Amino acid sequence: xxxxxxxxxxxxxxxxxxxKDVRAEVNxxxxxxxxxxxxxLLEKLADRVRFxxxxxxxxxxxxxxxxxxxxxxxxxDAGNVLVxxxxxxxxxxxxxxxxxxxxxxxxxxxxxxxxxIDAWMTGTxxxxxxxxxxxxxxxxxxxxxxxxQDPDIIVISNPNNPTGTMTPETLLIDLLEATDAxxxxxxxxxxxxxxxMRPHMSRHPNLAILRTFSKAFSLAGLRAGYLLADASVVRxxxxxxxxxxxxxxxxxxxxxxxxxxxxxxxxVREAMRNRDRLVHGLSQMAEVAVFPxxxxxxxxxxxxxxxxxxxxxxxxxxxxxxxxxxxxxxxCLRVTVGSEEEIDRFLxxxxxxxxxxxxxxxxxxxxxxxxxLERNGE
Length: 378
Ligand code: PMP
Description:
Elements: E1 14-15, E2 26-27, H1 39-52, H2 64-73, E3 81-84, H3 86-98, E4 104-107, H4 113-121, E5 125-128, H5 139-149, E6 153-157, H6 169-178, E7 182-186, H7 190-193, E8 207-212, E9 225-228, H8 231-240, H9 248-259, H10 265-283, E10 288-290, E11 297-302, H11 305-316, E12 318-319, E13 321-322, E14 332-336, H12 340-359, E15 373-374
Parallel strand pairs: 1-15, 2-12, 4-5, 4-6, 6-7, 7-8
Antiparallel strand pairs: 3-9, 8-9, 10-11, 11-14, 13-14
Helix pairs in contact: 1-9, 2-9, 3-4, 3-8, 10-12, 11-12
The structure holds 4'-deoxy-4'-aminopyridoxal-5'-phosphate.
4'-deoxy-4'-aminopyridoxal-5'-phosphate binds at residues 31, 86-88, 112, 157, 161, 186, 188, 212, 214, 220, 225, 378.
């Protein structure tokens, strides 16, 4: 054959993830830790790899050692923990198991786009309950949707990516009591917010909590995340997951990192300090509106955001995340809390861009409307 037949027609509505491959000296676009693993952890990892990791053998499918460590730290049994190839894999597993044709997922946009994408891929119907203009969950609308639509999954990013907003614990408890749907509370940024629904697990078997090694623990490049949930939920997820998705190297690195997690505390405190500096710096700028955040990123609104994004990249080699085409986030950009140096460079660049904007007429570029779904895994 000199051709290949077309794939599923729905793929026409999807843009491939990160096809642009944008390079920048300062990457503040993916909410990563600005620092690599500390030197002593890299040494320990190198030793383990040299003497103790048979790469010729398949990995332990359930990452038993890592699973045990996570369970112990959270006062749970190993059966309450599922480890995945990043939180992204676990989100897909949850939707594969609880979603599917004829089933419904409640999404709370604007939020992390993978929930909607995975729902789409699995033929799960999405019931959107938009957040308020302050990006808070609209409690009455959510409760109405639960009563009227009887969803199978409700996903809440807490803090919410990309807005940084927390949902009140009382609302989450009301929700857990009002439905037997699986309520996935995505705590990917838990180490920064320091707030968790973990204490409510024993009373609510429909509560599942997602965490990741990609943010506070500097392991975005190795892909590890975990779920805390009722053992019956974990058992169902093991039916749909890829058996060897978490490779040996990642399991060892995540074990060492988790054992030594206290060393990341300084980085979290540094991020909190830098977040304050970032918020302070941005709020000095007349044309910028900053939204409060409980995570390691800040969402802000600025006139002609798409042009500001482009100037940050082209003139200053700084990459932030452009949300200006996302409904509800018009003129919004998200900046990760980087190192002190990176934040200084970003704030200086913003000052220059805004000053130039006043002085020049080149600033007339509008974001082109784009209704395509954009994959946004980070
Ligand atoms: N949930 C949220 C809210 C996120 O922002 C991210 C990544 N940015 C993830 C889950 C997945 O993270 P990872 O796959 O790297 O663990």
